[in-house]
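Hi U.,

Before I forget, here's the chain from the pilot set. I'm dumping it here mostly so it's searchable later in email.
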Amino acid sequence: MENAPPETPARELFDRIKRFREAMIEAQTDILIVTSRANFEYLTDHRTLSWAYQARPCFAVVTLGELIVVASRAEARNIARAERHFRTEVYDGFQAEAALAVVKAVTAADPGATAKVAIDYGQDIMGRGSLELVDGLRGRGPKAQLVSAESIVWRVRSIKSRFEAELKRRSFAIVNAAFDHVIAQARVGVTERALQRQLQAQIILNGAERADPIGMLFSRGDFVYSRPPSDRPLEPGHYLWTDFRSTFGGYPADRNRIARCGEPESWEIATYTSVRDVTIALCRTIRPGQTGGDIHRTFERLWSDAALPPIYAAASRIGHGGGLEVTEPPSVAAWSEEPISAGMILHLEPKLERDGAVFQFEEVVFVREDGIEFLSELSPVCCPVIPAGQP
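Structure:
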């Protein structure tokens, strides 16, 4: 596989900024403060290793006429390596000085402290920041306004370009190939931790730039999906469940895969087939104009028609959006009124636990005006099997 993600086209970047400004105008917002890595890279296309620590943060300030990056003097040389579509304000010091530099940039754009300022804190957005930043922005004057940019961010980022969809496609190809390669060599006795490390190594060799921790469980009924991998050895009859977080071009490959140690029984084969068929059929019904609740109602009908038992319900939804974040709006759930639009990427992943086994097929689609396009190779027709013989 080709290892290097392509450069983001200039036209793509300018379109992103244009759409952010349109969303700001719609929300009657004058200035946007960008603190999260995903939002920062989405708007600036600047990559830095400084995200690995908290000492010298980068921020961006978006006005209706300018894009400003606030960065430490230590970052200035990295920024100067390429021609940029933003202006840079450099600060000396650390986090507190960074916050002060952001406040100064906002004050320069709004000397009267009357503008409505939005910051990227909200649902599915864990932005960076500090009390110095929030207090500084709110303390600029008695009329200073600081609000959440959640609606602005998701109005723009929930609609993906073809460029983004192709980065997601390649991210999924990396983890699918890694899973198939490692599972083909797995044997009884391997531990969850060892298999996780093998998968992470293979994912990096396949071209991912990051291989964040992977869910890796061996179980016959005691599934705890948020539990880190342990030294539990693989035994005959175990179901293997995994969930990926690695990235390519910044886009994570959130995809679930399963396998079984030893040949499945007839009821397991039938259940595997039914859950897979329902998941794929559900994906093919998605159209722009529906809501997350509409999709869920179709799911309930398909699941009932397949005579399947109740799903694993702790997650409260059977799907979600995806992009630069592992999970993004909209939700696919009975309570969701979020609209589905062309350009969204959706993950559909109903999960069934039954008699010690787990069946889940996370299929990922790119919503188009005329239907959907799968961004990942579909889950295997037959369950992958790890030999149950001697280690």
